[in-house]
Amino acid sequence: MSDPQDSLIAAARAARARAYAPYSHFSVGAAILGESGRIHAGANVENAAYPQGQCAEASAIGAMILAGDRSIEAIAVMGGQPGDGRLCTPCGGCRQRLREFAKADTPIHVCGPEGLRRTFTLEELLPHSFGPDNLDF
Asked: Active-site residues (predicted)?
């Protein structure tokens, strides 16, 4: 059996290859490891009316929910160009989306086409966040 991190990165790579990015030409793939052990992937989907597009992370979260998982154990996000070295981290909106289903220590593997570039925790990317636990009365 392969390493879960390697499987996530491979799934993010495959999702990135299917992204629909005719305007920005910036394809992104994401893959989530759910609590069931299954991997749920998504790609960015652009739209001529720019605000109507969808990020890869949001697509992957939707696939996870549809499959019945409710908790993100880890995620890999792949974007950028080979050899570029810059990080393609989740946008602010997606960081908040991840917060809905992930814990502070959930690993977020940020990858380029060549593979892993850096791993963060959700807390590192979204410190002092507001989430479901803030609504517990």
From this structure: 57
